[in-house]
């Protein structure tokens, strides 16, 4: 089987063209092996590009633990770049993911992808933290000295506490930057460790910070993840977040046969 490796701000994926449906993605042990960084190709997750009636393509996503995942923002951007590489799309696309339809655009050079995310109208509080779903569930917690944070220990403690143990949650620690943006580090469920970036996570951070500051109107929020820089465009009317776009690089790394 021929595979491709893509990454978006350090969030990396093994990608297959599965339009012929030859790959059975209901094989957790096989996916775990592919994503293993010592005994496989190494990735945060698996992406299968498949056909979908009425859409340019469908993105099927599985976490590194082999289980079907919810929406992956950086994975979606990488899927768009892969679809352009295959000649399925040109500069724009409408594709299907687990959380529904998505629109995206891609630059002429094919490495900058703007992906529309689902609208959000519900953000809750858990103590001082914010909790919301941007295609995947996220816990947002402000912190200091982010670079010294023990992400594995502290993130895992929240992900597996009594509230979130059964369904799981992605844990984001956030620190403000001087440019009006935020630095973010994320512990991802399914990977069960820190990843270098999380698309739905940085999106959730941007929305939660606007909610916290009651910042009505249109926004462009720069986000610095460990693996690179992303930006979130959105509109907030005081109740609902709409026109949400996750934007950043999506780059081909290598390809091979396995």
Show the helix and strand layout.
Layout lengths: L1 E7 L2 E7 L10 H8 L9 E6 L7 E6 L9 H14 L5 E6 L2 E7 L5 E5 L6 E4 L2 E5 L3 E6 L8 H9 L10 E7 L5 E7 L4 E3 L3 H14 L4 E9 L2 E9 L4 E9 L1 E7 L1
Characterise the protein shown here:
By secondary structure, this protein is α+β, with helices and mostly antiparallel strands. 17% of the residues lie in helices and 43% in strands. The protein has 4 helices and 17 strands. The chain starts with a strand and ends with a strand. The model has no long low-confidence stretch (mean pLDDT 96).
Instruction: Give the helix proportion (percent range).
Output: 10-25%
Oligomeric category: single chain
Strand content: 35-45%
- For this structure, what is the CATH homologous superfamily of the largest domain? Diaminopimelate Epimerase, Chain A, domain 1
Give the SSE order as H and E letters. EEHEEHEEEEEEHEEEHEEEE
């Amino acid at each position: 089987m021929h595979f491709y490796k893509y990454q978006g701000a350090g969030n990396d994926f093994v990608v297959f063209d599965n339009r012929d449906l030859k790959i059975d993605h209901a094989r957790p042990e096989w996916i775990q092996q592919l994503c293993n960084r010592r005994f496989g190709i190494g990735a945060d997750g698996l992406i299968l590009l498949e056909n979908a009636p009425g859409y340019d393509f469908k993105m099927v996503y599985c976490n590194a633990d082999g289980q079907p995942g919810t929406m992956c923002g950086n994975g979606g951007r990488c899927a768009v770049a892969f679809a352009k590489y295959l000649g399925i799309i040109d500069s724009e696309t409408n594709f299907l993911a687990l959380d529904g339809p998505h629109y995206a655009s891609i630059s002429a050079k094919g490495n900058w992808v703007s992906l529309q995310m689902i609208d959000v109208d519900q953000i809750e509080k858990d103590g001082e933290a914010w909790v919301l779903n941007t295609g995947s569930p996220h816990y947002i917690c402000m912190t200091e000295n982010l670079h010294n944070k023990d992400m594995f220990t502290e993130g895992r403690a929240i992900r597996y506490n009594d509230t979130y143990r059964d369904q799981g949650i992605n844990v984001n620690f956030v620190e403000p930057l001087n440019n009006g943006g935020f630095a973010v580090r994320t512990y991802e469920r399914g990977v069960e460790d820190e990843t270098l970036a999380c698309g739905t996570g940085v999106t959730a951070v941007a929305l939660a910070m606007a909610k916290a500051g009651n910042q009505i109107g249109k926004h462009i929020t720069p986000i610095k993840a460990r693996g690179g820089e992303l930006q979130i465009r959105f509109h907030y009317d005081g109740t609902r977040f709409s026109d949400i776009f996750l934007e950043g690089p999506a780059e081909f790394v290598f390809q091979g046969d396995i």
